[in-house]
Automatic annotation (TrEMBL):
This is Putative ABC transport system ATP-binding protein. The lineage of its organism: Bacteria, Pseudomonadati, Pseudomonadota, Alphaproteobacteria, Rhodobacterales. Pfam families: ABC_tran. Residues 3-217 form the ABC transporter domain. It comes from Jannaschia faecimaris. Keywords: ATP-binding, Nucleotide-binding, Transport.
């Protein structure tokens, strides 16, 4: 089992007291499987993704990545797992401004201990072949998003966590990036958990998990 989420609950403190955001969420994700996380705004999708990424811990319940309960790991071990096994594509692209597109890609591969491989081929699939020597600030939002996707895929993570990864792209470019992510998952046997508001994109993935007010609907 790649990812196991069991009976996860999470509340946030507010001025009106604790506000429950996740109220007992359970699901599993296998290698090579793609899962769309859907639900209306505020239903807890990003919160759940952050917990799975180990950026925060649940109040109760357990999240296991490759059999490791991430709440029970030391900070160092959790960071190592994130670096080696997990790829994040979040809405803030977090590209390194002082590095070119090429160097952003290769840096991320090396950070995960992987060889970058054929950068030109990846850039072509990302539609960024002519942009490898540019810096992030010289790219459009959609181009930066594609670098962020490429940077994650080049590190060959075993679990890809993506929050609206095609939100800044037009429909056809978004579909091409979805196909790229799905191919990569198929080729490497990784798993993909992707938050999306788009039913059309959700339908491109194997399974769907719909959240309603913090519960699986
Ligand atoms: N750090 C926090 N402190 C307090 N409340 C929070 C925090 N993070 C999220 N929330 C609240 O938790 C609820 C769920 O937020 P979350 O971002 O998980 O929803 P979402 O389903 O991803 O929404 P969207 O589709 O709009 O991105 C919201 O009511 C939000 O205000």
């Amino acid at each position: 089992m790649l990812l196991s989420v069991r009976a996860v609950e999470k509340s946030f403190e507010t001025t009106d007291g604790p506000q429950p955001v996740l109220r007992g969420v359970s699901f599993e994700l296998n290698r090579g499987q793609t899962l769309a996380l859907t639900g209306e705004s505020g239903s807890g999708k990003s919160t759940l993704l952050h917990l799975v990424a180990g950026l925060d811990i649940p109040d109760t319940g357990a999240i296991e990545v490759e059999g490791h309960d991430i709440a029970k790991m030391s900070d160092g071990a959790r960071a190592a797992l994130r670096r080696d096994a997990v790829g994040l594509i979040f809405q803030q692209f977090n590209l390194i401004p002082s590095l070119s597109v090429r160097d952003n890609l290769t840096f991320h591969a090396r950070l995960a201990g992987r060889e970058p491989g054929n950068i030109a081929e990846l850039a072509e699939r990302l539609g960024l072949l002519g942009h490898l020597d540019r810096f992030p600030e010289q790219l459009s939002g959609g181009q930066q998003q594609r670098v962020a996707i490429g940077r994650t895929l080049i590190a060959k993570p075993r679990l890809v966590l993506a929050d609206e990864p095609t939100g800044n792209l037009d429909e056809s470019t978004g579909d091409a990036m979805m196909a790229l992510m799905r191919d990569m998952v198929t080729e490497t046997g990784a798993g993909l958990l992707m938050v999306t508001h788009s039913i059309r994109l959700a339908d491109m993935l194997d399974e769907r998990l719909h959240l309603r007010a913090g519960r699986v609907a």
